[in-house]
Amino acid sequence: MVPPRARPARTLRIRAALTFALGALLLTSALSTPAAGDDADAGDAAADGTLQVDLGADTGEFHGGASGTLYGLYGPDVPTNNLIEGMNLRTVSTKAQDGPQHPGADALEVVKPLADSTDGDTYIYMTDIHRGFPYQWPGKTPAEKLGTYREKVGKQVDQVLKLPERYQDNVVFVPFNEPEGNMFGTGEWSYDKVSWLDDPKAYFAAWDDFYRLIKQKMPAARIAGPNTSVLYDQVKGFMEHAIKAGTIPDVVTWHELSHPEKVRESVRKYRGWEKDVFKGTSYEGKELPVNINEYAFNYHTSVPGQMIQWVSAIEESKVDADIAYWNIDGNLSDSAVQSNRANGQWWLLNAYGSMTGNTVKVTPPSPGENYTMQGVATLDRAKRQSRTIFGGSSGAGHVEFGNVPKDVFGETGSVKARIREIPWSGQVGDSGPPRTIAERPVQVRDGKAVLDFGSGGLPALKESSAYEIILTPATKADAKSVPSALWKGSYEAEDAAHSGSGYSKNGPEGSPDEVSKFYTSGGYNVGGLRTGSDVKLDFTVDVPEDGTYDLSVFANSLNTYDLVKENGPTNVFLTVDGKDEQELKLPLGYKWVVWDHADTKVKLTKGKHTLSLAARSLDGKGVTKGDAIVDRLTLALPHPDAGKAVYEGELATLAKGAKAVYPTDGAGAAELGKGATATFWVYSPRDGESTLTLKTGGSGKARLAVNGRDVGASKTAVSLSGGINKVTVTGASGTTLVDRLTVEQTAGTLTPMTYQAEDADLAGTATVAALSGATGGKAVRGIGGKPGNGNTATFKVDAPKAGTYAMRVRYSNPEQAEATHYNPDPLVRHADVSVNGGAAKRVTFPHSFHENNFWELTVPVELKQGGNTVGFRSEELPNFDGTSYASDTWPGILLRSPNAPVLDRITLAPYAAVRP
C-alpha cells in the first residue's frame, strides 16, 4: 500500500506484512462474494467454466486506461517511441524535474516522447523533488517545511510554463503523494506528526493553498489528488471539503496495491461518494477522471496471465491506471527489455491497445474471484471486428461469443477466428509477437460461436499466458498465418535429476499468497551452477519427431552479486545425451529471481533424450564462472513456414481514413486512400537485415516507411532494429488495398561493414580494455566525463555510396547508483555521435547489467561516398535550466552519467535497398 520507491528495507518488510494481511482479508471477501452488478448468467458461466462474451451488450466506448506506468520512462529513447506508441501508453507518473529520488525519469524529459508518441499525460509527483521515503522534508518548524516545499512547487510550475505550449497540456500536477504516510502523517518527517486521517485541518489548508498557487501560475493546469495509498473513507470528506473550497481536483487519484477485484470495488465506492458530494452543485451529474496511479505487484508484472486480471478490472471500471514501480525505471514497469525490445507483458498491452470500438459484456467463469479466467472484449462495427483478450487459468477452457451480429459479420453462418497465445517470457526476456495457435472459420449457431481450449484442436490454457481472439467476417481466402510451432514442451528445473555438490532447490517464490515475490514457473527454481561447482542438471525430454528444436533456458544471475561481478553472465555447458556440447551464457538481471532466457538450437531425433546443464565441460577444461539459478527449459519445434511473419492489413492500426474491407471473393484488407495509413508493429529478433514484402491490390499506389524513414518499394531489404519496428504504409494515390505485409530475415543484400573500437582513434582517457565478452576480447572504455572533456573515440569508415546507413553499436553500460531502498538504480549513458564533424546526435544506451554484457543498438546515420568519420563523445548533462548540474545540486547522489557506454564495435549497413 505504500509506494514502491525509496523505502528502507526494514520499513518495507513491516509495511509489506500489513499490506499482504489486508490483501488476504480483501481477497477472502472477493473469493466468497460475487461482484455487484453480476446477473443470473454469471452462475451459468461459473457452472460450465465458460468465458461468455456478449457481443450484443455494449458497455461503453473502449477506454484503454490500464496502459499506464509509474516511473516507466527514463528519458528520450529509453524506452523508444516505438514501445511507447505500440502499447498505446496513456499515462505516466514520474518524479519532479531534477529531483533526487532516482536517476532519470525527470518529468520534463519524459513529457515530450510520451506526448509525441501517444499524446499521453505525464503526472508529476511534485513531492519527488525530495530525497527519501517518507520524504525528507527540510524545515525546523511546520511553517518552514511548508514554505520550503511551496517554493519548490512554484518552481516546478514555472518549469512547465517554459515548455512549448503543445506539451503543457500533457502535464498533470500531483502536489502530494500518500499524504497520510508522508507530509501529513505521524512520522519523523511529517508536518506536525498528526495524521490527516484523524485531523484533516492542516492538510486541507495546504491542499487549498497549493491548488490555488498552481492555478494562479497556470490557470489551465490540471491537478490530481488526493493520491492516497488506498481509497480511505476519509477521501469522501476530502471531496466534500474541496467542493466547498473550490479546490476540487481535476483528476482523482489513489493507489490500488491489493488485488484486481478491489479495483472494481473501489471505483464503485468512489463513484457513489462522488454522486453524493456533487448533488446540488455545478458538478452534479458529472464524473471526474480517475487515475489509479499505482497497481499490481512483482508476482503480476511481466506475466500476461496475471496482468489480464488487472487489465479487465481497470477497463471495466473505465479509469486510467499506472503499473507500480517495484524494480528499475525506464522499462515500462517490467514491460520493456533493453530500449526497444518487448516481453510478454508488452505484447499483452499491445493487443489491449489495439482494441477499438466499444467494450461488450464479459462474464467470466467465476465472477468476483481473483486468479481465475478474466477477459476484455470489444466490438468495432465500422471495422467489422471483435477483439478479446483473456487468461489467468490452466487446463480446459471455453470462450463463447453470444449475439454474434449478422450485420457486422455477414450471413455466411460462420466467422473467421484468429487465436493467439501471449506467453510469459520473463521480466527481462525478449519476446516475439503473440504465437499463432489457429486461424480458421468458426460456425455460428443460434447467434453463438464457441471455441474450446484443451479439445477441438486447440491446446489447453496456461495460467501464465494471455490469449487473443480476433473475429472478422469469413471470406473465401485461405489462412495467411500458420501455427508458430508444431510442438512445444516445458521442463521445470526442480524436476530435473541432479548430481554434484552445492545444489539447492529455492522457493516457493511468488504466489497469490506472496505477491511481493517474483513469478516463477512451477513456483521453484534451482541453484548450484556457480564458480567451483560440479553440479549437473539432467532434463529428460520426449520429442515427437526428428528436427532442429528451439531451446530456451530460463535463468537469472544478480548483476551485483560477488561471484558475478568479475565476469558478468554465468557460463554453463549444455549437452544432448552426453555429447554435442555447447557453452551458454546465462542472463543477468537487476535482482535475483528476475527471469530472462538464453536461446539456442539443438538437433533431436524422435523419442527420449537427456539435456544436461553442467558447471564443467565434458573434457574438464571448461568451468563455470559466476552464479546462476535456473527456472525451466522450453523446447519448440518451429513450423517450417513460420520464418515468414505475416501481418494482415485489416488487423493493422488504421488512421486518416483507412478502413478494413472484406471482399466476399478474397481476403480481408486495409483500404487506403491518399494519405491514409496502416501501421504494423513488426518484430525482429536481431539488429539486421530483413526483407519486407507488401502485397497490395487496387488501382492506387502506396509508400512504405520503417521507423519513420521512407523505404519506398513493396519488396525491400531493410535494416531492422532488434525488437519492435514501426512499419507504416501510406496511400500515395488512388485506392490501395493492403492485403498483408510479410517479413523474413535475410542476408546478402545490405552488406555490413564492421569496425572494432580498439582500432578507432582514441583521445584523453578513452582506452582499450580487455573484456572477454567483447569481439576479439577488447573494447574501449573511458569516453566522456565532465563538460569540456576531450575523451573521445573516432572511427574512420568507408561507404560504397552516399545515403542512409544503419549503424549497429555493440556496447555495454555498467553504471549503477547506490540505492538506499529496494529499487535498483541503474543509469542510462549517452553518446553524442557526429558524422564528419557535423552536428551531434544524442544516443542513449540503457544499462546492460555489467561491463562484460554487450547489447546492440541501431542508429541511422548519413554517410557520404568514400571516407567518413564517426565520432563518439559524452559529458555530464545539465539540469532543466541548462546551467546547473545534478552533481552540484545533490552532491554524492549519482543522478546523471557523464560517461559514454563501453564500445565494442560498430557495424554499418545500408538502411534499405529495393529487392527484385
Describe this structure in words.
Helices cover 17% and strands 37% of the residues. It is built from 14 helices and 55 strands. The protein has a nine-stranded mixed β-sheet with strand order 17-16-19-14-13-12-1-15-18. Strands 2-3-4-5-6-7-8-9 form an eight-stranded parallel β-sheet. The radius of gyration is 28 Å and the shape is globular. 53% of the residues are buried.
Short structural summary:
Helix content is 17%, strand content 37%. The chain is an alpha+beta fold.
Strand content range = 35-45%
Q: Report Rg.
A: 28 Å
Q: Could you estimate the helical fraction of the residues in percent?
A: 10-25%
Rough outline: globular
Task: Describe this protein with a few key phrases.
eight-stranded parallel beta sheet; 17% helix; single chain; disordered N terminus; nine-stranded mixed beta sheet; 916 residues; globular; alpha+beta
Blueprint (SSEs and pairs):
Elements: H1 9-32, H2 41-48, E1 50-61, E2 68-70, H3 81-86, E3 91-95, H4 107-118, E4 121-125, H5 142-161, H6 165-168, E5 171-174, H7 201-217, E6 222-228, H8 234-245, E7 251-256, H9 260-278, E8 290-295, H10 304-317, E9 320-323, E10 336-337, E11 341-342, H11 344-353, E12 358-363, E13 374-380, E14 385-391, E15 397-402, H12 406-409, E16 414-422, E17 435-443, E18 449-453, E19 466-473, E20 485-492, E21 497-499, E22 504-506, E23 525-530, E24 536-543, E25 547-556, H13 562-565, E26 570-576, E27 579-586, E28 596-604, E29 607-614, E30 627-638, E31 644-648, E32 653-655, E33 659-661, E34 669-672, E35 677-684, E36 688-698, E37 701-706, E38 709-712, E39 715-720, E40 723-733, E41 736-745, E42 753-756, E43 761-762, E44 767-770, E45 778-781, E46 793-799, E47 803-812, E48 816-817, E49 825-826, E50 829-835, E51 841-845, E52 855-863, E53 866-873, H14 886-889, E54 902-910, E55 912-914
Parallel strand pairs: 1-15, 2-3, 3-4, 4-5, 5-6, 6-7, 7-8, 8-9
Antiparallel strand pairs: 1-12, 10-11, 12-13, 13-14, 14-19, 15-18, 16-17, 16-19, 20-30, 21-24, 22-23, 23-30, 24-29, 25-28, 25-30, 26-27, 26-29, 31-41, 32-35, 33-34, 34-41, 35-40, 36-39, 36-41, 37-38, 37-40, 39-55, 42-54, 43-46, 44-45, 46-53, 47-52, 47-54, 48-49, 50-51, 50-53
Helix pairs in contact: 5-7, 8-9, 9-10
